[in-house]
Write a structure and sequence with these properties.
CATH topology of the largest domain: Alpha-Beta Plaits
Structural class: alpha+beta
Number of strands: 5
Helix content: 40-55%
CATH class of the largest domain: Alpha Beta
CATH architecture of the largest domain: 2-Layer Sandwich
Oligomer: single chain
Length: 253
């Protein structure tokens, strides 16, 4: 049975910007992404290595778009096509997935189909995976990976929040999370899926001069607003527990 994603937590509905402001036990956090997770899973299953940026196709694929805009459209197109049953439904779903007023909504089926074909030519080993309704199986696989991440963090006493293809931990343990994600993906698909941090962690500053470490810590340990402090105080009064900034000792790592 192909299901099992961890749906429902409130942080999954936040924008990336708002997620970056989450604190755990009054400690700043970092979010680590699996890069191009679904097509990396497909590549691992096919036994091939993807280009450094599989969404970077030759310019001019879509009219009136710069390289950054084109890459964004290609990514949306590929991920949509992976979940579609055929090219026609992929084209409709692609346009439906764009915001109102987005120039991509005006793209005709023929232009989108040409984009799908360009990706196939650039990454031929994954060509048959497009428009094959592979998304359900991929979501099951990514849930298996994230389940291992959650279990590994629990064993270490490390709090973690997951968002399907990314995870959030206190910024004191960015490197630990990255290692766990690489290991967990290798256990499921046979090789590690590349990861990327959306921000630096405090533990990544350890080799830098002390003044740099202290400046970084002071910058991330931003002043809390009154509503935040009020909510935290109310929680402490309600539960009878004190919120202590997270400082994991690493004894079990």
């Amino acid at each position: 049975m192909k299901n099992g994603r961890f749906y429902g937590p409130w942080w999954q509905g936040l924008s990336g910007e708002l997620r970056s402001q989450i604190f755990i036990n009054d400690t700043p956090t970092v979010e680590i992404d699996f890069k191009a997770m679904h097509i990396q899973i497909l590549a691992a299953q096919q036994g091939v290595v993807l280009p450094p940026d599989p969404y970077d196709l030759p310019p001019g694929l879509f009219p009136d778009t710069d390289p950054k805009e084109q890459r964004s459209l290609v990514k949306q197109m590929v991920l949509t096509a992976i979940n579609a049953r055929d090219e026609k439904s992929a084209c409709s779903a692609f346009r439906d997935g764009l915001d109102v007023g987005h120039p991509g909504k005006k793209l005709k089926n023929v232009a989108i189909q040409q984009g799908i074909q360009a990706f196939r030519e650039n990454t031929p080993a994954l060509g048959d995976c497009l428009c094959s309704d592979a998304g359900v199986g991929l979501m099951f696989t990514d849930s298996q990976i994230m389940e291992r991440v959650i279990e590994a963090c629990a064993k270490l006493g490390l709090p973690v929040l997951t968002v399907h293809d990314s995870a959030i931990v206190p910024y004191t343990h960015s490197k630990a999370l990255q290692e766990l994600m690489l290991r967990s993906s290798a256990e499921v698909v046979g090789r590690p899926i590349p990861v990327e941090a959306k921000a630096l962690g405090l533990d990544e500053q350890q080799d830098k001069p002390l003044e740099v470490q202290l400046d970084f810590e002071a910058w991330r340990e931003t002043e809390r607003c009154e509503s935040y402090l009020s909510r935290m105080k109310k929680w402490e009064e309600t539960t009878g527990r004190e919120v202590v900034p997270f400082r994991y000792t690493g004894q079990n790592e």
